Amino acid sequence: MPDDGRQVSGDLSDPFGQSNGIDPERKAALEKAEQFLAENADKLLHSVTAHHSTFTANELHSALMDRRDWQPPELVKDVRSSHLVREAITTGLLSDMNRVITYPGTVYDFGDDYKTRYTTIELQTMEQQILHAARSWSNQPGAGVRRDTVDLALSNYRAEREAVGKKYKLEGDIEDAIRKFVEPARYRFLHGNPGAGKSTVINMAVRALKQAGHSVLITAQPTQLIRTLERESGHKAMPLHQVLETLESIRDPALAPELGLQRGGMLIVDEAAMSGTREKFRIMQVAAKHNLSIGDIGGLTQMKAIAPGDPLRAIAEDPNTRIIRLEKVLRQRKEKDKEATLAMDEGNAKKALKNYDKRGRIKFTKDPVEQAAIAYTEWRVKPINDGKRGVMFTLDRKVNHKANQLARKHLKEAGYLSDGVTIQTHDGEREFSLQDRVLFRETITPDQSMSGGRITKGAVGTIEAIGPNHMTVLIDGEDSPVTIKVNEGIRLNHAYSLTLSQPEPPAWEEGHMMDSPQGGALDSTFPIITRELDHPQANVMITRHQRAMTLFVDKRVYKDLDALAKDASHFEPEVTALALANWRKRDANDTGPAPGGTRT
Question: pLDDT tens for residues 328-341?
Answer without folding.
Answer: 877 778 889 889 88
